[in-house]
């Protein structure tokens, strides 16, 4: 029976509607996956060097022991946000002559098919073979693997159990991340040390390998808890995340913009009430840390804004880039309604500009904490901000008129590449290269601030020309409307 | 003539889905569009609403081509399918949004909705649900009520009776009959009883072509039944 279920799952994956519609997108996605897995494998193989680099005054095994629990704490939070409940897939089987326990078993097995259950193998196993084996011997190594595997399974089913029992929301995830960060900070200032605790636990396993079965017991316990809960509550409406009562909302601050504000409010609700755009927005906040990669001390000191430009453009414009790449398609489910109702194309486009401007402004203000690194970065951000709201918005909306791919926003967000086409990938090039090309000549002439000024002023001029761009894009949309509407109806 | 259709054709590949030589609808008429699946009813309605570009021909609303300007949207309301609903809004938010497009204040909208308490059967308003969480029948009710709220001169509904419960079907018929004369109504339906009851004129389409166009009288239902059973 289980194998039949799994073969149905495999078919549903390969035969899903949006597959094959864009092979290019699939290939790019495949490369991304490959890239991430090779990255994880690389981290796993180079673990001893990495640990020695990050914790120079410590024995590598101690550091390794120390990070395991941290990893799984982080893993837990991430699962809470991204791991899907495999519930809907059982609907067609519930009324058939299949026993409950078989269905529960199927749900349990299906839950193991998650990328989260692959990472630990890549990240931790190599080290076990390379370092633990020679140090403590085969039995201890085996038990290390058993305990890591057990914690992983424990996390897997605990998250599902929590998700089934209660309403989890993004706030908890954020809160969890803050807690982890707080522990890391306490660790850094040597107040409390989770690393020491983690090290203590795994040293005990090294000394008495059979202690590892404690983790296994915990995993088995949570597995049974989950299964019992499932067997008792095998009703689809009870298993999917619980519903809260929905209320009407009014965004007073948008009212002053009249009809345009009305449309912007509509879209804001769209973002907040669907998983996929919501996670796009959350992703945007994560990109606020992008600056730490790009803003190197050397680059800051030598005014090398060219190198940092990409980071700044991407960071301040992330809401435009990430949300804008699927522009109009977010509304594909009711695009007919938008066309048939009394909505002026100009107002419609203006609402998009308004929303982008608000999003970009918020992110730019938040990103100003980089001013602590160097006040120069604020100038860079200002230039990037003007570029993004002045020109970036235009690029994104222009490309949106070429996007005819329907997007089902009710579907899950992570690793969902429906609606992704070549346009989305091409978008990044003109968007990010234009300001860099504008800056480069001034960089070469060693006039970095002039370069920034040019990028900023260019953005400002485009911003002043917004009326023109609104007309232009509204005209394009008017011309393309049948094609877009047809694509969205698919 | 409030609506005129001239030489309207829609061709997909080598298949002509809609091919209407000439159709004139006078203000105040209630017209029913009847035909089997694949007769091109929805495609035709979409062209009336400028959602699909006709291959040839034109649709004139009060003498103006619907493709060329938007003034027809001021006096035309429609509900074809769930694609017209913004399903992540609560019904109240949706009504207020649609109202705002026609410059109705929140107070106007709630005053209007109050009359519809019976039609909604207490299930729509203050339900604490988004439109997407409603049953299909209740979604249709929201769509139709939102269309009627716009006090349109032209109302276009695609199979409004499908998915509605019997009580609501009867209420909808009464609503539509009460408007006859002031409002031009164009509906499609598979339910011959309802459509002959409500409409003063029936347009029968087959494979995209108008094959019959006549005023309803007591024999209409029989006539239609014999046509469809043949």
From TrEMBL, chain A:
Give the residue spans that cross the bilayer: 21-43, 63-82, 103-124, 136-159, 171-189, 201-225, 279-296, 308-330, 351-373, 385-404, 425-444, 450-474
Keywords per UniProt: Membrane, Transmembrane, Transmembrane helix
Q: What InterPro entries does the record point to?
A: DUF5687 (IPR043742)
- Name of one Pfam family that matches: DUF5687
Its recorded name reads: ABC-2 type transport system permease protein
Q: Which organism is it from?
A: Pedobacter alluvionis
Automatic annotation (TrEMBL), chain B:
The record's listing under InterPro entries reads:
AAA+_ATPase, ABC_transporter-like_ATP-bd, ABC_transporter-like_CS, ABC_Transporter_VariousFunc, P-loop_NTPase
Q: Which domain of life is it from?
A: Bacteria
Ranges where the ABC transporter domain occurs: 3-229
Give any GO molecular function from the UniProt entry.
ATP hydrolysis activity
Record carries keyword Ribonucleoprotein:
no
Cited PROSITE patterns: ABC_TRANSPORTER_1, ABC_TRANSPORTER_2
Task: Tell whether Aminoacyl-tRNA synthetase is among the UniProt keywords.
Answer: no
Query: Which key words tag this protein in UniProt?
Result: ATP-binding, Nucleotide-binding, Transport
Its protein name is ABC transporter ATP-binding protein
């Amino acid at each position: 029976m289980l194998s039949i279920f799994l073969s149905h799952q495999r078919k549903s994956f390969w035969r899903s509607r949006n597959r094959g519609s864009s092979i290019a997108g699939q290939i790019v996605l495949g490369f991304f996956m490959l890239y991430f897995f090779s990255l994880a494998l690389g981290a796993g193989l180079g673990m001893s060097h990495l640990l020695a680099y990050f914790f120079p005054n410590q024995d590598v095994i101690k550091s390794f022991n120390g990070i395991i629990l941290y990893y799984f704490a982080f893993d837990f939070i991430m699962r809470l946000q991204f791991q899907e409940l495999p519930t809907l897939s059982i609907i067609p089987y519930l009324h058939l002559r299949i026993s409950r326990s078989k269905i529960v078993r199927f749900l349990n097995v299906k839950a193991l098919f998650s990328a989260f259950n692959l990472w630990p193998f890549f990240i931790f196993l190599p080290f076990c073979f390379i370092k633990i084996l020679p140090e403590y011997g085969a039995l201890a190594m085996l038990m290390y693997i058993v305990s890591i595997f057990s914690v992983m399974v424990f996390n897997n089913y605990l998250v599902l159990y929590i998700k089934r029992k209660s309403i989890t929301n993004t706030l908890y995830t954020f809160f969890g991340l803050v807690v982890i960060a707080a522990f890391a900070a306490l660790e850094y200032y040597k107040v409390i040390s989770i690393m020491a605790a983690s090290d203590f636990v795994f040293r005990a396993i090294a000394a008495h390998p059979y202690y590892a079965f404690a983790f296994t017991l915990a995993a088995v316990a949570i597995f049974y808890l989950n299964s019992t809960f499932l067997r008792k509550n095998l009703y689809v409406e009870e298993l999917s995340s619980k519903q809260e009562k929905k209320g009407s909302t009014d965004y007073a601050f948008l009212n002053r913009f009249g009809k345009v504000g009305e449309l912007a409010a509509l879209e804001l609700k769209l973002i907040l009430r669907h998983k996929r755009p919501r996670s796009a927005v959350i992703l945007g906040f994560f990109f606020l840390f992008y600056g730490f990669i790009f803003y190197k001390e050397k680059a800051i000191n030598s005014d090398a804004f060219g190198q940092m430009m990409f980071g700044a453009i991407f960071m301040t414009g992330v809401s435009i880039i990430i949300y804008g790449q699927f522009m109009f398609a977010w509304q594909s489910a009711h695009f007919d309604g938008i066309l048939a109702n009394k909505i002026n194309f100009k107002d419609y486009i203006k609402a998009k500009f308004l929303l982008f401007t608000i999003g970009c402004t918020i992110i730019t203000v938040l990103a100003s904490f980089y001013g602590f690194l160097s006040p120069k970065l604020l100038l860079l951000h200002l230039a990037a901000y003007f570029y993004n709201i002045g020109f970036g918005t235009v690029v994104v909306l222009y490309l949106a008129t070429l996007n005819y791919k329907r997007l089902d926003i009710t579907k899950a967000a992570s690793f969902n590449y429906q609606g992704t086409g070549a346009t989305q990938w091409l978008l990044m090039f003109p968007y990010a290269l234009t300001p860099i090309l504008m800056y480069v000549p001034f960089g070469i002439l060693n006039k970095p601030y002039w370069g920034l000024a040019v990028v900023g002023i260019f953005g400002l001029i485009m911003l002043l020309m917004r009326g023109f761009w609104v007309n232009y894009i509204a005209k394009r949309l008017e011309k393309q409307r049948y094609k877009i509407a047809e694509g969205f109806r698919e | 003539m409030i609506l005129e259709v001239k030489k309207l054709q829609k061709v997909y590949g080598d298949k002509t889905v809609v091919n209407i030589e000439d159709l004139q609808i006078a203000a105040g008429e209630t017209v029913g569009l009847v035909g089997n699946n694949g007769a091109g009813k929805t495609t035709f309605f979409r062209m009336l609403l400028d959602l699909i570009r006709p291959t040839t021909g034109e649709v004139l609303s009060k003498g103006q081509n619907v493709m060329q300007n938007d003034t027809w949207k001021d006096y035309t309301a429609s509900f074809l399918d769930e694609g017209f609903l913004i399903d992540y809004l609560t019904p109240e938010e949706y009504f207020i949004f649609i109202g705002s497009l026609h410059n109705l204040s929140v107070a106007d909208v709630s005053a209007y909705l109050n009359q519809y308490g019976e039609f909604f059967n207490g299930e729509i308003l203050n339900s604490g649900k988004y439109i997407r969480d409603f049953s299909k029948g209740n979604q249709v009710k929201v769509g139709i009520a939102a269309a009627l709220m716009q006090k349109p001169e032209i109302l276009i509904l695609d199979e409004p009776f499908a998915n509605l419960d019997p009580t609501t079907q009867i209420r909808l018929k009464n609503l539509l009959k009460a408007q006859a004369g002031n409002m031009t109504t164009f509906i499609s339906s598979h339910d011959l009883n309802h459509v002959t009851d409500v409409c003063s004129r029936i347009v029968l389409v087959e494979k995209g072509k108008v094959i019959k166009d006549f005023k309803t009288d007591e024999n209409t239902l029989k006539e239609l039944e014999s046509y469809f059973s043949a």
